[in-house]
Known about the structure:
By secondary structure, the protein is mainly α. It is built from 10 helices and no strands.
Amino acid sequence: MAAPTSLPGPETGGHVFVTTHWSVVWNARQKDSPDSAAARERLCRSYWSPLYHYIRRAGYSPHDAQDLTQEFLSRFLHREWLEHLKDQRGKFRNFLLTFLKNFLRDEHDRARAQKRGGGKQLIPVDAYEAEERGFIGPVDGLTAEQIYERRWAESVLKVAKEQLEAEYAANGKAALFEQLKDLQPGEHGEKSYADIAASLGVTEQAVKNAAHRFRRRYAQLLRDEVGQTLLEPNEINAELQYLMQIFAR
């Protein structure tokens, strides 16, 4: 039986720029909104790693950094913080870092007798333990702000990759994803197109076509994820360029 000449990718429709998480939060800052609460929680889960690493690099112990991150996220989930927004119509990561610096300044001068976070644990402890194993220490010569931005960039890439993996799995193509995931732009997998073609029982050209669709969809998901933290879609290209610059440093 002849090898097929093409491999399908995940089933996706046309792309339309939709309302972003940050715009939902911004527009609902003066009123109670279930959509805004859900958007804030999604943003918090995406940014907890950059926040945690910023706090660690600022000199806090793993335990204190964990508590402070939980407390900061807990407060951000409350609408009252957003009522102080005036001229913050920019990138969410910049807004969040400004609030974090103010929060840490206040915490430094405040007694910490009360349990932080109000008892709410947004991020599981084991997730912090995994982050601590990959903590960028002082020997790397990076400032807290640089670590924050690098972790932000890594989080964006991770979320986009997880979404792509889910799409392939939902379409019964998990095995194809595993073969193509190391062929992302900027990465060099151990297997060649010919190796992958042999393992899947298809032609080399079929793998090249599948890889092209894989990269194109990954790029779109990356754009979508970056766009979730912006208010204006015309800022996406500049933000993507900045993200790539972070890895090029």
